[in-house]
Amino acid sequence: MQNKKYTRSVAVNMVIANMIGTGIFTTLGYQVNPEFGIPDPFAILMIWLVGGIVSLCGATVYGEIATRVNKSGGEYAFLSEIYHPIVGFVSGWISIVVGFSAAIAALALATGEYFLPLLGMAKEDTLLSIPITKIVAAIAILLVVLVHVRGVKFGGMFQNAMTYVKLGLVAVFLIVPFIFIEDYEGANISFAPTAHSWDTIFSLPFAGAMVWVFFAYSGWNASSYIVGSLENPKKNLPFSLIIGTIIVTVLYLMLNFVFMYVATFEELGSGLDLGNIVANKILGPKVGLIFSAVFSLALISGVSAMFIAGPRVAQEIGKDYKLFKALGRQTEGGAPLLAIVTIMVSSLLMVFFLDFGSLIEFTGVTLAIFSLLTVFGIFILRSRKSKEENKSNGIVKAWGYPITPIVFIAISVWMIYYFVNIKTEVIWWFLIAISPAIIIYFISKRAEK
């Protein structure tokens, strides 16, 4: 009989693949922008280190919450259990229409831009008045969907293979600049801290720039979405969350160092395809084409990982609410077909109607709000624990409690405070996005009665 459970390696690779994607290969260009970024090399490395620490704090807390709740669906399952089903339903709605769909759309758009050199086309080129980047993005989404509708086993094998390609690319990219150091002129910048660096770190723009970092690190909680489909979740879930996050944090710091070591801030701010910019500068356009192809595969790995996690949220909603029962159905291979198609349609709509920057800011803030609520929930769950739970070996305790959840909450609140004060429209869009979910929840409950 076909194995319908994901292995530990798939869980770890899923975390890594979710995290290493659009963010690290695109967002540095926004951070070095002199108008709204933090154009200071030391401050930029610090913000990526802070992002890794915050993600690691969140990962260890999620490990405990997931083993206490022991359901697939991530925040949907956790918030339903901790607060009220309506909070979980709203987070599930946001995960489907924003968290995963918007992230998939952003990854696919970045894939399209990285793929352009292989087609010999420019960013402005169109087909039937549709930008080529959007067409490539749509094709990438459709191809990944065809993989995952085949079932858990095939999808897991594809995910592992794509993740190894991605890690191989990152490894090569970290080594190549130092092999060809005499063949190009680097950016010649200093990474040492200055008085300006510390002023930048404690400024509101630093908090605002965290949204790009949070987006790049989003995925540290990816394996919590498949806890119900994971082999030995009590061991493998916290292992995958923590190990995956540590690996990615180290890689992110090294990659940002290499990007700024090779290219000037002006060059890095000229487009989304940072990898192409750096590869072309080191190796030239011809060899750079090979990197364009591999970068595209690396980004598709992220799309694939989100098509593993995202549909599980829709699937859990389908199990809990009769109105969405069809979302809970699986194929013989264990694939939640309608849930996958739902996220596919939502992602394609975003690809064609939204721009990359808006997707990142809106997604980053939205995910931060629900992650904050989830992490705060550890205090509530522990206050409810019974004597039986105290004796249980099945619950994985959060490392560093209560410091780790406090650190996560404090940094998240700081970032959200920036948007409340500086970019209020993002908060308004968040409130608009959750309004339909509240209405649909009460319609669903009435239909059940």
Question: Can you describe what's shown?
Answer:
The chain is mainly α. It has a single domain (8-448), classed as Amino acid/polyamine transporter I, CATH 1.20.1740.10. The protein contains 19 helices and two strands. The chain has helices at 8-19, 22-26, 28-31, 41-69, 75-82, 85-119, 132-148, 152-179, 195-201, 204-217, 233-262, 265-268, 274-283, 285-320, 337-353, 356-384, 387-391, 403-421, 424-448, and strands at residues 126-127, 130-131. Strands 1-2 form a two-stranded antiparallel ribbon. A hairpin with a 2-residue loop joins β1 (126-127) and β2. It starts with 7 loop residues before the first helix and ends with a helix. The mean pLDDT is 81.
Short summary:
The chain is mainly alpha-helical and 449 residues long. 74% of the residues lie in helices and 1% in strands. It has a two-stranded antiparallel sheet.
Instruction: Give the oligomeric state of the chains in this entry, treating copies of one chain as homo and distinct chains as hetero.
Output: single chain
Separation of termini?
39 Å
Work out the strand percent: under 5%
Instruction: Spell the H/E element sequence.
Output: HHHHHHEEHHHHHHHHHHHHH
How many H/I helices?
A: 19
Mind telling me which CATH architecture this is? Up-down Bundle
- Rg is 21 Å
Instruction: Give start-end ranges of low-pLDDT stretches.
Output: none
- What is the CATH top level name? Mainly Alpha
Number of domains in the coordinates?
A: 1
Can you tell me the CATH topology? Amino acid/polyamine transporter I
